[in-house]
Amino acid sequence: MLQDHYSPLSRYKLLFLALAVLLVLDQASTGGWFEECNYSVGRCRIACKENEKPKGTCVGNKLCCLPVIKQKSSAFARNKK
Predict the structure, then answer these.
(1) φ and ψ of 53, to 5 deg
(2) Which residue from 24, 59, 66, 70 puts its CA 20 to 30 A from 76's CA?
(3) Could you give the C-alpha distances from 57 to 60, 64, 69, in angstroms and in order?
(4) Would you identify the family this protein belongs to, as annotated (predicted)?
């Protein structure tokens, strides 16, 4: 009967190779895993999330979604009066 020469280290070699390929692809792509817009403040998305507002467009007719920042100081000033 033939012995199985499959070693547990070959799994780690395959995992390491896959990780290396993903890292190289991330460095080679212009936007990384996601595209940024508006001086890297916004994200290019098909639809903005609830806590984001659209501002302009990106490549591929995507929206440039900026996070909504609530002004705490103005709410504090209104409550103080």
Answers:
(1) -125, 145
(2) 66
(3) 8, 5, 20
(4) Belongs to the beta-defensin family.
pLDDT of residue 51: 92
Q: Is residue 52 part of a domain?
A: yes
pTM of the model: 0.47
Tell me the residue range of the domain where 52 lies: 34-81
70 burial type by CB count under 10 A (0-12 exposed, 13-18 middle, 19+ buried) = exposed
Tell me the two tokens of residue 6: 């499959």
Q: Are 51 and 70 in contact (CB under 8 A)?
A: no
Quick check: is 43 in a domain?
yes
Chain segment 6-52, per-residue pLDDT in tens: 666 677 888 888 888 888 876 665 555 678 888 888 899 999 999 99
14 within a domain of the structure (yes/no): no
CB of 67 closer than 8 Å to CB of 51: yes
